[in-house]
Specification:
- The protein contains 17 helices and 49 strands.
- The chain has about 800 residues and is of the alpha/beta class.
- Strands 13, 15, 16, 17, 18, 19, 20, 22 and 23 form a 9-stranded mixed β-sheet that branches.
- Strand 22 and strand 23 form a beta hairpin.
Length: about 800
């Protein structure tokens, strides 16, 4: 007997990210044919119609097309995202970089759970916005990424490939361009066994057709699809499903409507190997010309919709090397008898002999298993360090055998799932499916009800500090608390000794602390550290000793209700960057939190008093108590209360205060948000090269001289980007302080704009301080301190010049 292809879902060497895109509400071109009804053969034995969509980020995929393809049973569908979205921004928390990549990966997987498709990724790390394909290839070696795309094609074996972009400058983002260029090249080359040997890349496969989405350019489409088609069995339209799928991308703020009625989607044929004689606009279906031999019908397999499998463990955290008891139960809620055979997996073993069991209708079968804690539960692509902007996971060499191929991301973790083979009606089906279920710990929450969390393999004791990087003022008295969090995965209480190692110049209040860590318990130990640091980078490290074992690393939980929880592992070490800077004695900051914003904690680390201000409380606060008020990045987008109460902030500046506003998007052009008008172009101006030269327009500007003198050296060592959503033009009341641009782009003076406003000062900055300060960039810290130092600000010559660029 042979496993269902849908069970193993193809294969993949790489990593997957997904993103959905909503179809525009354009009117259909009446000359285009309309895809009608399902294709002749959806699942023909071990062969199925398969489609692969290719994009760059988790928010690039066309969820309408995916839902229509997958849920209408026209084709098994997968989405390949080159990146995990690590370089984006975060509307739901403060995680950035690899932490954000974990969230956006899980959001793609959550989207796939809604629409039923599969997810793939390449090894590309999202290094941030790129303006061209050439710039992108400077970060991602082209051959490496092409290898990845070919591997995915050979794994998934799509009959049709659909690119999300055109591969031309009109795509905007360089990542978008590259995703289409690679998809087109891989379409042409994936059958080449000389350039891509079977042993390394898998059995060759040649896709039959290549399409491009035309969602936003319906005039170029060759086929249109009504993704608003209603499915009576599902009780929903495909566009409704797509809206729910798209809304899983919460960190990007991509909630979407679940639309009823006709919703048109458009695609354009780029190449075909099967119906070359048929003009592209004469096709009646994207599947025209593709014939798959029929095999076993799917009627019996559809009965598996009424078969459910659950697997519950006796604990949520399993210590590395230990075993957990698991109880699996299969429920036959169909009207036919089924036969069930439990399956071993590498980390999950059936307790006792494996037997084939008859399960009658409306009954259940239960069996015991053991799950071994063989490896830490963590994002597999982060198990080894990156090589530049490519993840470098240890991957096995593929062989010319389908059953050894790697899985898509959504089922990659199933080695720690419970699995069973199911036969329907007692027949010896050639096509016998495997059903799976994650091993979870289940508990009842009085508020949320039934809560289930995947069992995670963790160190016996996890040791972690709050941050991996922090700032400090050099040669100044430091008095700081460091919190060490201990988490036990051991099922009994145990004594632990915790110690903190500090650099020269600092002293800790006690060399070590002794405590008892409860069974599967969590404890936090606080150390007080005082002293002075010389300028430079220093390390503070924590250790835990339990018996003969020493633990020096741990995990940071990443948990949100809409995604599966994950853990990011890192050493229990803080890189402490001591910066030589001055802070005026009476500095006292009110801070309004923004998006993906860790600026306020960084200011506190520099010894600056910071009070977090709730936008709803602004009218009731005595704002005059603050020497400056800082608005976080994209705060006006994230908080309607801030917009409503912005007049109070402007009055604060008008009455003599300093108001510093970090970058926003197009909402900054709305009347009443800023005191003077700016314009932001579409697409917006940004400086993506973190090493782009910076020109100082007025070296005497207080923003660059007091209390810290800023030179060109302070713009060295910046990360990811210089600035974003930079104004193209601005009112003459604003005085530009610096000028910068990417190679080949026109100069932009919108990085720092300073305007006198009444008795006070309004400062607008589009520099990426939200990335620089948490990363410990000393020059950015000095510059930001200058901006919030009201006593250092004043009107300069540049503030009397016209503001157009």
């Amino acid at each position: 007997m042979k496993r269902s292809y849908s069970a193993v879902a193809g294969a993949l060497l790489l990593t997957p990210l997904l993103v959905a895109a909503q179809s525009p509400a354009a009117q259909p071109a009446t000359s285009l044919p309309v895809e009608q009804g399902p294709v002749d053969c959806y699942d023909c034995g071990g062969e199925s119609m398969r489609v692969l969509l290719v994009g760059a980020h988790p928010d690039d995929e066309d969820t309408n097309l995916i839902a229509w393809l997958q849920k209408s049973r026209r084709a098994q569908t997968a989405y390949l995202s080159l990146t995990r979205g690590d370089g984006g921004q975060n509307l739901i928390g403060n995680e950035l970089g690899e932490e954000l990549g974990i969230i956006r990966t899980e959001e793609l997987l959550a989207a796939r759970r809604v629409d039923g498709a599969h997810q793939f990724f390449s090894r590309a790390y999202d290094f941030g916005f790129s303006k061209s394909a050439a710039e992108t290839y400077a970060h991602w070696p082209k051959d490496s990424l092409l290898n990845d795309v070919v591997t995915v094609i050979r794994s998934w074996r799509p009959h049709i490939i659909v690119t999300m972009f055109s591969g031309t400058p009109r795509d905007g983002h360089g990542h978008h361009q590259v995703s289409a260029l690679l998809a087109k090249e891989a379409y042409a080359l994936s059958g080449d066994t000389i350039r891509f040997p079977v042993r390394t890349f898998g059995v060759p496969w040649t896709a039959l057709k290549l399409y491009q989405t035309a969602r936003f350019q319906p005039d170029s489409a060759t086929v249109r699809v009504n993704v608003g088609e209603y499915n009576q069995n599902l009780g929903r339209s495909y566009a409704e499903i797509a809206g729910e799928s798209r809304s899983q991308h919460k960190s990007q703020g991509f909630g979407a409507l679940q639309r009823k009625g006709v919703v048109w989607n458009y695609i354009q044929r780029l190449a075909t190997r099967v119906n070359e004689q048929t003009p592209a606009k004469s096709e009646v279906s994207m599947f025209d010309g593709i014939a798959i031999d029929k095999g076993v019908t799917t009627g019996s397999l559809n009965l598996l919709q009424h078969v459910a499998l659950e697997a519950f463990a006796d604990r949520r955290d399993l210590a590395l090397g230990d075993s957990a008891r698991v109880t699996a139960t299969i429920y036959n809620r169909s009207r036919e008898t089924i036969f069930v055979t439990p399956v071993h997996s590498p980390d999950v073993r059936v307790a006792g002999p494996v037997t084939r069991v008859r399960v009658q209708p409306d009954s259940a079968y239960q069996w015991p298993l053991y799950m071994k804690g063989a490896r830490l539960s963590m994002p597999w692509w982060l198990a080894t360090p990156r090589n530049g902007d490519l993840f470098s996971p240890r991957l096995p060499v593929l062989r010319a055998r389908e059953d050894l191929w790697q899985m898509p991301e959504d089922i990659r973790s199933q080695q720690t799932w419970v699995a069973a083979m199911v036969e329907v009606g007692g027949g010896m089906l050639e096509f016998m499916p495997e059903i799976t279920a994650p091993i979870v710990f289940r508990y009842l929450d009085p508020i949320r009800g039934d809560v289930q969390r995947p069992v995670a393999v963790t160190p016996r004791i996890s040791v972690s500090l709050e941050n991996s990087q922090e700032l400090a003022r050099a040669s100044t008295q430091l008095d700081r608390f460091f919190k060490v969090t201990l988490r036990s995965a051991v099922m009994k209480a145990q004594p632990v000794v915790v110690s903190l190692t500090v650099p020269a110049g600092l002293n800790v209040d006690s060399a070590s602390r002794s405590l008892t860590l409860d069974s599967a318990g969590t404890r936090t130990v606080t150390f007080r550290v005082r002293g002075r640091l010389a300028p430079g980078t220093h390390a503070v490290s924590a250790l835990a000793n339990a018996g003969s074992e020493t633990f020096a690393s741990g995990y940071i939980p990443i948990e949100y209700d809409h995604i599966s929880p994950q853990r990011l592992y890192r050493p229990a070490t803080v890189s402490l960057k001591a910066v030589d800077l001055s802070v005026p004695a009476k500095t006292n900051i009110g801070y309004i939190h923004g998006v993906g914003d860790k600026v306020a904690p960084a200011l506190s680390q520099l010894g600056i008093p910071v009070t977090m201000v709730n936008p709803a409380d602004i009218p009731t606060l005595d704002l005059a108590q603050f020497s400056a008020i800082v608005v976080g990045p994209r705060a006006y987008e994230a908080s309607s209360e801030l917009t409503y109460n912005n007049g109070s902030l402007l009055n604060y500046a008008r009455n003599g205060g300093t108001l510093v506003v970090q970058y926003g998007q197009y909402e900054m052009m709305r009347p009443g948000v800023m005191p003077y008008a700016i314009t932001i172009s579409r697409p917006h101006d940004r400086v993506t090269e973190e090493v782009a030269p910076v020109t100082i327009l007025d070296a005497s500007s207080p923003a660059l001289t007091s209390p810290n003198r800023i030179t060109a050296a302070d713009f060295e060592g910046w990360v990811q980007e210089r600035g974003l959503y930079m104004p193209r033009t601005f009112d003459g009341h604003f005085g530009p302080v610096i000028e910068m641009n990417d190679p080949g782009a026109p100069p932009n003076r919108g990085g720092i704009l300073v305007a006198p406003y009444g008795k006070g000062l309004y400062v607008y900055t589009t520099l990426a301080f939200f990335r620089q300060l948490p990363a410990g960039v000393s020059g950015a810290a000095k510059l930001f301190v200058n901006l919030i130092s009201s006593e250092a600000q004043g009107v300069t010559q540049t503030q009397t010049k016209a503001g157009s660029q």
